[in-house]
Design brief:
It is built from 10 helices and 10 strands. The chain is an alpha/beta fold and 254 residues long. It has 2 domains: 141 residues, 3-Layer(aba) Sandwich (Rossmann fold); 64 residues. The protein has a 6-stranded mixed sheet, with helices on both faces. Strands 2-1-4-5 form a 4-stranded antiparallel sheet. Helix 8 crosses helix 9. The longest helix has 18 residues. The chain binds adenosine-5'-triphosphate. Adenosine-5'-triphosphate binds next to strand 2 and helix 1.
């Protein structure tokens, strides 16, 4: 297993945001982490990536515990956060070289990877411009490149498509797909986009109020929710999280 989340709990004061989440993701698998607002997705991702400590439980990345061997675990991860922090006063290329150095690579060692991904993500001609002059989509693509250059075995993404135009979104989807299928890289992504999840993910986990309430392929979730074959993931999702009836009730009142 590339990623193992073991009975993860997180309390913020008295509020229990995660109530014992366990799940595993295999090498080369694309796993979608779905759930309504406030379900605990970002909290889980922050714990996986070592930004937040759990109240109890553990996360193993490539067998390394993020609590006991954080450096080994982090070396295997490429992280794409939902609100990335980038140094706007650097050029795109400087930023990537800097990120590479954090993972222990010299500029020379990482130049080829930087060139390759700048090309793929159509940032090459902007590489020597200051990041502050980049558009939102360009900044997002730069953050993606930064996550790929150190040869990660698993990519952790919080909301990959937010704010991307259709072309940018397609590029990301194709890249993830290729990395997973051709290089056996594992992708763990949280998303609100059910379309993205349905299109891309081998398996989906649905979290609600800090608990994993359902997990499996879209077909499996469809069976769980008792849905017809043609039903979209959106309906299945709303049924599983118990929100379908709520929405019906409200729209009656409108
Ligand atoms: P969204 O889809 O809205 O981004 P999410 O699934 O990522 O939601 P989290 O951000 O993990 O959800 O939040 C889970 C719960 O924990 C929410 O009820 C949130 O209000 C609470 N929470 C998150 N961070 C903190 C914090 N620092 N202090 C207190 N409560 C928090």
């Amino acid at each position: 297993m590339m990623l193992e989340i073991i009975n993860l709990r997180k309390k913020y004061g008295k509020f229990e945001a995660l109530k014992g989440i366990s799940l595993s993701v295999k090498k080369g698998e694309i796993y979608g982490f779905l759930g309504p607002n406030g379900a605990g997705k970002t909290t889980t991702i922050k714990i996986i990536t070592g930004l937040l400590l759990p109240t109890s439980g553990d996360v193993l990345v490539g067998g390394f515990s993020i609590l006991k061997e954080p450096l080994k675990a982090k070396a295997l991860m490429g992280i794409i956060p939902d609100r990335p922090f980038i140094y706007e006063k650097l050029t795109g290329r400087e930023f990537l070289t800097f990120v590479g150095s954090l993972y222990g690579y010299t500029e020379k060692e990482i130049t080829r990877e930087i060139d390759r991904y700048l090309e793929i993500f159509e940032l090459k001609e902007w590489q020597n411009e200051l990041i502050e002059s980049y558009s939102h989509g360009m900044k997002q693509r730069l953050v993606m490149v930064a996550a790929f250059i150190h040869h990660p075995q698993i990519i952790i993404v919080d909301e990959p498509m937010v704010g991307l135009d259709p072309k940018g979104a397609r590029l990301i989807k194709k890249t993830f797909w290729k990395l997973a299928r051709e290089r056996g890289i594992t992708i763990f992504m949280s998303t609100h986009s059910l379309e993205v999840a349905e299109e891309m993910c081998d398996r989906i986990g649905i979290i609600d109020h800090g608990e994993l309430i359902a997990e499996g392929t879209v077909d499996h979730l469809r069976k769980l929710a008792g849905s017809s074959v043609s039903e979209r993931l959106e309906d299945i999702f709303l049924r599983l999280t118990g929100e379908a009836a709520f929405i019906e009730e409200w729209t009656e009142k409108i």
